[in-house]
Write a structure and sequence with these properties.
A three-stranded mixed β-sheet has the order 1-2-3, covered by helices on one side. It is built from eight helices and three strands, in the order αααααβααβαβ. The chain has a domain of 91 residues. The protein is mostly helical.
Amino acid sequence: MATGDQDDVFKRLKDLLPNGWFTGDTPILDGLLWGAAYALNFVYTLWAYAKLQTRIKSATDGWLDMIAADFFGDTLLRKKGQGDSSFRNRIIINLFRGRGTRTAMIQVLEEITGKTPDIFEPNRPLDTGAMNTPLSKGYCGVARMGSMAVPYTAMITAYRPAAVGTAAGGAFCAAPKVAALNKPLASSYMNSLSLVTTSATDEDIYEAISAVKPVGTIMWTAIE
């Protein structure tokens, strides 16, 4: 017997009755109390479910989607087949994610693509090198020229996550038998982007950069 279930509510109701009012077997009374216990059990279950939805760490089902929409609009949606625990972790990570720093930019791109981006800031000596400075690699060491004409600007090269779901090529050369166009029984096929799935699209990458970059800055972005 668990707290709030039908048996528990039935016992609580019967215990509230004055002693001596009902003795022996009371099937009619028990039937009435059992019906009331059924209804009150439903109310208790609904209350317990509603209580869970008041905190992100305990929210479930569509309420998690509503929480994500409240904080992030349509920029953080539940992935196909994603469970509550995984989606909840994504919400919490994005809610408390660092923003406005180079480290935060690297972290968010690593999280969604699995690959470390290349970031170049023309105003940052550590990115460009400096002449006559013992601790600098110099211009030849980094092969980049800096510029004071582009303040608050960075150039980001982000890398797409590995695609899965299809062969790497059309497989004409590797076909067990001779492949041919317009032949229903040919052993190979023409590849198609429609067969490819990836954990993050180019749009996801652009949105992540836009969400993390400092206000008033320009992030030139190349995706490879």
